[in-house]
Fold each of these.
Amino acid sequence: MGYSVGQVSGFAGITVRTLHHYDKTGLLSPSDRSPAGYRLYSDPDLARLQQILFYRELGFPLDEIATILEDPQANALDHLRARHRLLTEQITTLQRLVEVAEHAMEVQQTGVELTPEERFEVFGEVTFDLTYATQAHLKWQHHEGHQRSMARAATHSKEDWTTIMAEAAGWRLRLTAAFDAGEPPDGERAMDLAEEHRQHISRWFTPCPTDMHGRIADDFATDTRAFALVVPPTAQRPGLAPYLHTAVHANAVRRSSPA
């Protein structure tokens, strides 16, 4: 049984144009014909196509694929080893480019140029998840508070960031201490810590009214990447993110209530 160009294109997931090109270059030509004279692909043709697509997926150029398939003396393993070395080198190069891009994005996010050692010195275990940062930017980019926060962050010096992170670390210790001590999330101590966090944002980034603070806390409770910006994974406890979320919203209610 033979298969038409259209049929092979459909189940192989490649275009008719590609098959015609393979035929024109002699890489893969249909070897059967229908009673009406139409050229058809045989089962051996399909097996050859499978090999071609395998090598193409690995990035082999068509002329090298032809050499591997046509030359009985060609050692496919040698070709694969060479391709493996090339791909490994490309991966290494791409990884370096990723690191450069991450560094550039961190500079844009923080506004300060730091070496890897300085970044660890300043930020410690708190890291910027670039996927989350990008998604958060797309989510909040039209909100004035986010725009002001990013603009303000870009003006901070290394010394500013050192102070910011020291304040955050002290607050984090007090938060986990309250949580570990069993203080209720809607109690005075937890709400005071929530208010301290809100004031920290207002002081260093952007005015943070309680409704905005509540939206930030909502992200803490639903996205581990967001919560990791304030409490690194090594310092987290099960239930700590919901605890802070409750404290933030309780503090908002407290502040909106008449004195």
Amino acid sequence: MADRSVSIESTDARREPGIRSQAEGGIVTQLRLDHSSLFLRPTLRRAPEVTVEPEYWTTLETGRTLVFCSVYGSSFESFETALEMDPTIDDPILVDRYPDRRVYRVALTDRAVSFIAETATAGGRLLDLSSSRDGWLVQLQFPNRDDLVSFNDYCRGRDISVTVDHLRLSDDDDDGVVALTEKQQELLAVAHEEGYFDVPRGISQDELADRLGVSKSAVSQRLRRAIGELCASTLC
């Protein structure tokens, strides 16, 4: 034990001044996580026609965690009804209305299964988070493979289903943008072929939704993400 202490001290003495860095590459992954008690999962099962994007969350001094979410869709009534029956949250409040979405604030309950804190514990960085029909779609960056494995082990230990959409190495010039998913590529291909980007448009979002067999809110959300990622990778 004494020798180990000496070794640590000598290592610290040789360390160059400056903050510790994890900016030398890493692993970027896009995952689909599912569990019956994940945050808002019961609501999303009852109201699959909406898309939820958490904006931010904060923990009060009382230990209560509040989450603010943007919700996209057309059936807010069914979403709000589902919120009132969701055991993973309580005290849902409508905060604001916009033409394309509504903003809600909810409080987490002790019945909610979480993965956000463990992401940070494993050294990960949350790049993006949104709901999907089969759970939560999350984009994460980890310093190395071992940290990603640690996060995966955490999910396994809590019966959180993990499906990998994308997995790639990052580098010093990485902008943090994950490649387009197959669904995003399919949507952009169909939208381009059918004249969605033409003036006037050759196809509406409603028609795109019918063509692909998804909801209008899913088309709107997928288009915004795909175009945003393309802009980030080509303009930044």
Amino acid sequence: MSYSVGQVSAFAGVTVRTLHHYDKAGLLSPSGRSRTGYRLYSDADLARLQQILFYRELGFTLDEITEIVKDPETNALEYLTARQRQLSEEIARLQQLAEVAERAIEVQRTGVSLTPQERFEVFGEITFDLSYATEAELKWADSEGQRESMARAAAHTKEDWRQLMGEAAAWRAELLAAFDEGEPADGQRATDLAEEHRLHISRWFTSCPPDMHRRIADDFAADPRAFALVVPPSRQRPGLAAYLRKAVHANAARHAGGRTGSEEE
């Protein structure tokens, strides 16, 4: 069958101007003519056009495509191998840019108004996972406590962050020591540490009654991204998140005078 320029333009998704350009460049010339002199494309021409569009999608220049289609058996593999390597390098570069953008968005979402260097100095290994921060923001969007926490975090100075992270580091060391020494999660030492953590949240972010603290601890045990906010992965132990959750629940029960309700252990 034969097809006019307009027909090919319509079903191939390219402009008539592009087809004229391919013709002028000697890349794809219609192999037929109508009785009235209009150019007509054959099925073989369409196959060649499909090949050209494939290589264009991969980012090849017209000169490179011309070289490939002249002798595809000789040139295609070499060009495709080189292009695959270039695309892999570009993907890696774009991934780095995406990570930079993610960190910039992270700063906005977490309200931590520090430079990258200051963030490293203050937070060290503690990281804010953007996906978790986003989910938490959506989950608690209607919570007054979440709004207060974000507002107070945004208002903290570098020295505020340095102080609160120092407190958190000291508390974390005590938690790890209690866990490593086999202290029971519902014992005095562990529940006192749970209470200290609850008061830390109230002091620096938002009022944290025992019920809220239990929900936070549930997140620690269920989501590694949440637990990484208090204990970096390099310092975690198997079972530590569950240990902290149990201590927090025991502390909440202590506040309630021993009434545990429907708490799950």
Amino acid sequence: MSKTIMIVDDSASLRQVVSIALKGAGYNTIEACDGVDALKKLNGAAVNLIISDVNMPNMDGISMVKEVKKLPAHKFTPIIMLTTESQADKKSEGQAAGARAWVVKPFQPQQMLAAVAKLI
């Protein structure tokens, strides 16, 4: 059975690039435009992994990670932050919230797929 990955980013073009790479590797994808949208779409969905941006309107990625971790069904869902943020403090804030990996944009699809393969 193929795994489902949620892509959360306010950039439609970035979601598309990530989605194409993931689908090419055999994964199903669900897209969300920000943390609020992601939480709505997560409700009852069988999502195996989440890839999220940090800087987004309505609810940023780190706040979203904290909210996802409160959901019993997604408490252990691995989350990869895909972001332009490379500062150590942002990274440790993300890890403290529960993010399992940090991929900096611009990213290589292979690099992202390797991170996904490790966690899923």
